[in-house]
Each structure stands twice: as structure tokens, then as C-alpha cells.
Amino acid sequence: MNQLIRCKTCDQVFMKGPYDAYPEYEVAPNYSSENFRRIERDDFQNFLSDHDGHQLESLKIIEDSYVSEKAYSEPIKVSFFKATNGRERFVVKKFRERIDEPLKYQLIFGDYSLKCVTIEIQSAEISKQLEDELKPPLSPEKIEAFVKLYGDVVQGFALEDLERIPEESRHPLEVYYKIDDVHLVYLLRKCRSLFKGQEYLAMEEFIHRHKDDGVLLLKATYNIELVEVAKPEKRTIPVFQPLEKEKVLWKK
Ligand SMILES: [Zn+2]
Question: Is 218 a member of any domain?
Fold first, then answer.
């Protein structure tokens, strides 16, 4: 189990736990797990001696708070998660700048949220899929016309109108949505003026094949919006209960 330790004096954090800090791909064949543990132990000893005499506390990582700008398997990336000491909440930034260095953890006062920045159709993927699947092939002009038509149909969609696809996407900040039935009917009706006879039927099949988990899904891209705040001032207001007790003690 990983354990996150904060120095309250310096606001530095240390992630104690071998699994996260040194990922497996950095393991050379002659690099045993014993060596790993030794490095980890030394790092922790360094942290303890750097913060000798300071006040340390253990932080609890808040479940499901993890967000990352790149896929989990990417070695060089910036990720964030939230942690708490039971009274205050912190943001922890996890990153490394080079593949051969261990992960760094930075304590940040503030919060973050995910904000949708764009919603778009998968134009290139739709074109490619139409080229691959439709027999007899569609003309490039018709492919282009369909892509434009689909773009026009979904124009101005709000996220609230869309249904999120439950599967995880390859990229953590990309989320896929499917269009609702009303717009699906509208798209099919519009297609009738572009395609005739067999060609229309083939397009109708294509649309049904790809609307739920294929190239017709809409791609929403999110940003991690981090808001940093100044470190809250230490409270110096006296707490009344202990003072009362003190008075009683003095009288004795
Ligand atoms: Zn310290």
C-alpha cells in the first residue's frame, strides 16, 4: 500500500510505496525487487532527515479523484489527485520530466475540475470507414457531403443532450457520446436528399452500425482546470475550552 506523507512545515509530500515511484519498464534484468526497496528506503530516509524536527502527517488519497493528461501507460505525464488530512483537502501533482527519473509529487493548495473544451465528429474516421465498408464505393464527393451533413446535424449540441458511452477511452481526457434518437431520425431524413435507392439503404445500415460504438460517436475533449489558492493562514485564534481548563488549574 502506498502512503502519502506531508511535511506540515515545508508543504512537501513523499509517496511511500515502491509500486508507483519506479514503474516496471525501468527495471533492468539484473534489477531485483530488493534493489528497488533499498532505493525507496533510502529516498524515505532522505526525506525524513531533510525534514528532521518538522511536523509530519499522513494524508489519505481521495478515491476516484485521479485525473491525468495522458494515458496510464505513458511514462512522462502530469497527473493530479486529491488528498486529505481529515480537516483540509489538497491537490497533489504527480509528474516526471524524464523517463529515467522517479516520479515527483508536489502539494498544491486549491482544487481542479474537468471542463469540456470541444465536441466534434470523427471526420477522418468516418471517411475512412465509408471508404472501407461501402460496396459499391461512394464517390469522394459523397463521402465529403455526408461528413459535412453529419457535422451540421450535431452542430450546437450540448453535453446534457448526449449519452455518454460507458467504455473507457484510450485517452483519459477524451469521452465519447452517442447522438439521441431525435437527431438520428433527422440525420436519416437529411440523407434521403443525398443518397438514392440502394445507396441510401447502404448508408442507413452504416449509420445504424456505427451510431452506438463506432465512428459516428461524438468526441468530447476535456481540460484539467487547476485553480491554485494561497496557503490558508494558520489559525491563531485561541480555542476556548483549553483556556477554561487552564484557569481552573491555576486556581488550585
Ligand atoms: Zn519539512
Answer: yes
State the total domains in the chain: 2
Q: How remote is the CA of residue 152 from the centroid of ligand 1, in Å? A: 57
Q: Do residues 66 and 99 share a domain?
A: yes
The tens digit of pLDDT for each residue in 200-251 reads 999 999 999 999 989 999 999 999 999 999 988 765 555 444 444 444 444 3
4: CA distance to ligand 1 center in Å?
A: 14
| Same domain for 147 and 76 | no
Among candidates 147, 160, 180, 145, which has minimal Cα distance to 220? Answer: 160
Q: Which three cell numbers stand for residue 209?
A: 452500425
56 Cα: distance to centroid of ligand 1 (angstroms): 8
Using the mean position of ligand 1's atoms as its centre, give its distance from the Cα of residue 209 in Å.
59
Q: Taking ligand 1, which is a single-atom ion, which protein residues have CB atoms under 5 Å away?
A: 7, 9-10, 51, 54
Same domain, 92 and 166: no
Q: Which residues contact 6 (CB under 8 A, 6 or more apart)?
A: 12, 13, 56, 57, 58, 59, 85, 90, 107
Q: Which helix (H) or strand (E) holds 222?
A: strand 218-228
pLDDT band of 106, cuts 50, 70, 90: very high
Q: Domain residues for 11? A: 3-108
User: Is residue 65 a part of any domain in this protein?
Assistant: yes
C-alpha cell at 79: 497527473
**pTM for the complete prediction?**
0.71
What is the whole-number distance in angstroms between the Cα of residue 90 and the centre of ligand 1?
17
